[in-house]
Amino acid sequence: MPGIIFCGCAFTRAAEGHRQGQAHPRRREVAIAGRRIRTVDIHAHCAVPEAHAVLGQRMDQQDLLMADTSARLAAMDAQGIDMEALSINPWWYAAERDAAAEIIRIQNEALAGLRDANPARFTAFATAALQHPELAAEQVEHAVRKLGFRGVGVGGSVEGLELADPRFNPFWAKCEELGALVFLHPQGTRELEGSGRLRGNGLLSNTIGNPLETTIALSHLIFEGTLDRYPGLRICAAHGGGYLPSYANRSDAVIRTFPNRVGPLPNKPPTAYLRGGQLFFDTIVFTPEALRHLVAEVGAEHVVMGTDYPFPWTSTEVDLVMNTPGLTDAEREAILGGTAGRLLGIA
What we know:
Radius of gyration: 20 Å
Order of helices and strands: EHEEEHEHEHEHEEEHEHHHHEHHEHEHH
Strand order of the largest sheet: 8-11-12-13-14
CATH class: Alpha Beta
Number of strands: 14
């Protein structure tokens, strides 16, 4: 199969130690109330160099872990991560149809091969050429029915188009039909970058831009009626769903404040969609208080653990969940892996 590289600017100390020949760290086993549980990281990145070669792109090998997964497994063991759901951030949305088809074929076959080679440690989200919606629907069907995927990854927008644009309806319909979980990962707000508002220190194009794009994408999916049209659709939003869970009550308030600016949909207050069983959110919110608040807004049953590996945004999400006040043992188990296991059909 094509080689997969695991990308990021830094690895955990455990992974670095393993690369340098140190002893493999003892695998951390997570238990709740004395019972061993399985933990699932729903937000873990990788890339397939052969896919980039289709467009003549050459990937920088610096700070990349090659197809040998030993360093990644060492880092997972140290953090108490039993399984990762691998995903690839969309970089191919500008590709024309034939090239896009080849890119997706290469990536999905590589991801399936890696998953099948170590099914106890890896699952994966398929990729799709969403800029060609009918093709994307076919790719998802092939990925689920032929390659055994249970989910697909998408960006927060597609070359300036919102995910709620009607032209993407064939894709959403197919995901609903197949029961495929959609992992929504932002690509930043490029429109703001052009204005210069996000220049300067702080990497604001990522720090603010990524969660902002997720907020915009989810808001459109609610207000434009996509979630109403496809009630069986399930979406997991990265980075805690951006800013939406923290300020969704304003989205409720706009309906009564400016009723002439809100269309016939949504069918219920926007906050109801946060707990309605269609939207899920990862734990990348950084502090126990932030996670407590996320759970208070969306319900523990809609929160799943994510690490953003190998990017070092977080230290250990297992400890974040375990140290968040007010959670029951059942809620901790669901967040750490139970809900993700159910959504992704992990036996």
